[in-house]
């Protein structure tokens, strides 16, 4: 990092989740009717998963939660503490302590809302080979309320930020909070960034997603998420470039800042879609033996991107740093990193 950034320049809201990650056989997935690349919300029938992972599969506990992952990665690359502020809801328990410790040691300025009687959320990460299947039990994370953002200190943090990032995942929790942050960003003419997060968001939460879309300056997603959005919209195309063009053409409140879509596709090139152009950014393919797990790859991509974006770097640099960060965390368990960042602009 070259110059010093303003503290709290980047604000994010999301679900703080502790990942319970384990390598499991395929029949474990089948038992819970999950696919090898799923991301779902836990229903009653999934509740035994967490205990089973701990008791039978030497599960690892890792800090997770999509937005918190991205902000931790951004902090790691920036190397200057408290550039990013995070809001989300946890319980008052050991899992919350672990999340807080991991986030703070990454340099993140964490402002959790705490709900005493509800456990901190968890996410089962079921690893089969190079795939990962996610089952989130939001628990306390689902109890986030807008009044947390209205607390004077928190309100000041939101007002003073220059960049905002919220996941599509948070649409299942508290759309009014998202709309409030988005409206602040619009009023102050500051970029508001969002993520499609998972196919189920487009399938089941399209109404709140479309409500916020006019505020979204940059939308991130992977292939499956882009296809799910297109299908839910009834768009007659499976071409990712075409889907990207339609995403950026959706209604927008601030026409002075045309929407940008950034679509990742695993080891294939990242697509940067703007009104009149589609650009490709190559990914350095990792050998199979280098891959520990891809859990958090998309989140790390966003983290790397944000670390440069808040420094006012070009989209080209932001995307290359996104690919760098994703490549790094794939070589580590979950969304974790080792050593000092080695990104060269
Ligand atoms: P998860 O969905 O695993 O994270 P992700 O960051 O989206 O990782 P994916 O593996 O899905 O990557 P992607 O498909 O998005 O990106 P792509 O493959 O295109 O989620 C992880 C976290 O989500 C967990 O910590 C969990 O807590 C949280 N979570 C789950 N449910 C939640 C909920 N309801 N609310 C909140 N949080 C929730 O790749 C992206 C980039 O990676 C590429 O552009 C490239 O740079 C790189 N890359 C990918 N594959 C390769 C490869 N083979 N070689 C080299 N580079 C690669
Ligand atoms: Na993803």
TrEMBL record:
Q: Which GO terms describe its molecular function?
A: adenosine kinase activity; ATP binding
InterPro entries reported for this sequence: Adenokinase, Carboh/pur_kinase_PfkB_CS, PfkB_dom, Ribokinase-like
Q: How is the cofactor bound?
A: Binds 3 Mg(2+) ions per subunit.
Which Gene3D superfamilies does this one have? Answer: 3.30.1110.10, 3.40.1190.20
Q: Does the keyword ATP-binding apply?
A: yes
What catalytic activity does the UniProt entry give for this protein?
A: adenosine + ATP = AMP + ADP + H(+)
Q: PROSITE patterns, per this entry?
A: PFKB_KINASES_2
Q: Which cofactor does it need?
A: Mg(2+)
| Residues annotated as domain Carbohydrate kinase PfkB | 35-337
Q: Tell me the route in metabolism or biology where this protein functions.
A: Purine metabolism; AMP biosynthesis via salvage pathway; AMP from adenosine: step 1/1
Q: What is its EC number?
A: 2.7.1.20
Q: Which domain of life is it from?
A: Eukaryota
UniProt keyword terms in alphabetical order = ATP-binding, Kinase, Magnesium, Nucleotide-binding, Nucleus, Purine salvage, Transferase
Q: Which GO terms describe its biological process?
A: AMP salvage; purine nucleobase metabolic process; purine ribonucleoside salvage
Question: Which residues participate directly in catalysis?
Answer: 299
Q: Principal place where this protein is found?
A: nucleus
The record's Gene Ontology cellular component field reads:
cytosol; nucleus
Location comes to: Nucleus
Family according to the record: Belongs to the carbohydrate kinase PfkB family.
Assembly and partners are described as: Monomer.
Its job? ATP dependent phosphorylation of adenosine and other related nucleoside analogs to monophosphate derivatives.
Its protein name is: Adenosine kinase
């Amino acid at each position: 990092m070259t110059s010093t950034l303003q503290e709290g320049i980047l604000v994010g809201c999301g679900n703080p989740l502790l990942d319970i990650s384990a390598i499991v056989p395929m029949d474990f997935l089948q038992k819970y009717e999950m696919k090898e690349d799923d991301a779902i919300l836990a229903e009653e029938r999934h509740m035994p998963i967490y205990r089973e992972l701990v008791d039978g599969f030497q599960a690892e506990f890792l800090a997770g939660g999509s937005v918190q992952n991205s902000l931790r990665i951004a902090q790691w690359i920036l190397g200057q503490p408290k550039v990013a502020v995070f809001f989300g809801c946890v319980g008052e328990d050991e899992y919350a302590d672990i999340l807080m410790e991991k986030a703070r040691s990454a340099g993140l300025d964490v402002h959790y809302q705490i709900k005493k009687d509800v456990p901190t959320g968890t996410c089962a990460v079921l690893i089969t080979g190079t795939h990962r299947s996610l089952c989130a039990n939001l628990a306390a994370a689902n109890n986030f309320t807008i009044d947390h953002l209205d607390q004077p200190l928190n309100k000041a943090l939101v007002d003073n930020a220059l960049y905002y990032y919220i996941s599509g995942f948070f649409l299942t929790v508290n759309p009014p909070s998202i709309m409030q942050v988005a409206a602040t960003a619009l009023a102050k003419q500051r970029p508001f960034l969002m993520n499609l997060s998972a196919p189920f968001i487009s399938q089941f939460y399209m109404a709140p997603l479309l409500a916020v879309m006019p505020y979204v300056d940059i939308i991130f997603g992977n292939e499956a998420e882009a296809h799910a959005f297109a299908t839910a919209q009834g768009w007659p195309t499976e071409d990712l470039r075409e889907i990207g063009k339609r995403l950026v053409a959706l209604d927008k409140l601030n026409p002075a800042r045309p929407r940008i879509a950034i679509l990742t596709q695993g080891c294939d090139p990242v697509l940067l879609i703007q009104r009149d152009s589609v650009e490709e950014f190559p990914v350095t393919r990792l050998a199979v033996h280098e891959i520990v797990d891809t859990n958090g790859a998309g989140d790390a991509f966003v983290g790397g991107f944000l670390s440069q974006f808040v420094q006012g770097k070009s989209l080209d640099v932001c995307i290359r740093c996104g690919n760098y960060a994703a490549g790094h965390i794939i070589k580590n368990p979950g969304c974790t990193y080792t050593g000092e960042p080695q990104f060269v602009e």
